[in-house]
Amino acid sequence: MVSTVLKESSSASNILMHALSVQTAKFVKPSLGDLPGALKGRLSDSNKKLIITTLDIIKCLSAAMGSGCSKFLRTFIPSVLSCLGDSNVSQQQYML
After folding, report:
1. Domain ranges of the chain
2. For the CA atoms of 11, 54, 38, 70, what is the dihedral angle to 10 degrees?
3. How would DSSP label each residue in 58-85?
4. Burial, 24: exposed, middle or buried (Cβ in 10 Å; 0-12, 13-18, 19+)?
């Protein structure tokens, strides 16, 4: 059961990442609904690959939204900064 949930989470993250990386990213609007909260939850996951994918999604979202991303800083910044304190060296290097 756990591996099924993990596969679904990873698959959903990859689909979102692909959607943001193609030309449709310019159509991203600042009204993201529940997405910021869900991404914040993924940053505290035990799967390091999922955390790195989530960081990529946040990076793409902020680039696509431009200044509209500023209203989500309070949601993302504490969780992103906590990823820097992780004991996984590869994750720390990725963050920098």
Report:
1. 2-95
2. -140
3. HHHHHHHHGGGGGGGHHHHHHHHHHHHT
4. exposed
Calpha distance 13→81 (Å, rounded): 20
pLDDT 10s digits, 59-96? 888 887 888 888 888 888 898 888 877 777 776 676 66
Assess contact for 40 and 75: CB atoms under 8 A.
Answer: yes
Burial class from Cβ neighbours inside 10 Å (0-12, 13-18, 19+) for residue 53 reads: buried
pTM over 0.90: no
Which residue has tokens 């993302």? 76
User: Out of 1.25.10.10, 1.10.10.10, 1.10.760.10, 1.10.1610.10, which CATH number does the structure's domain 2-95 have?
Assistant: 1.25.10.10
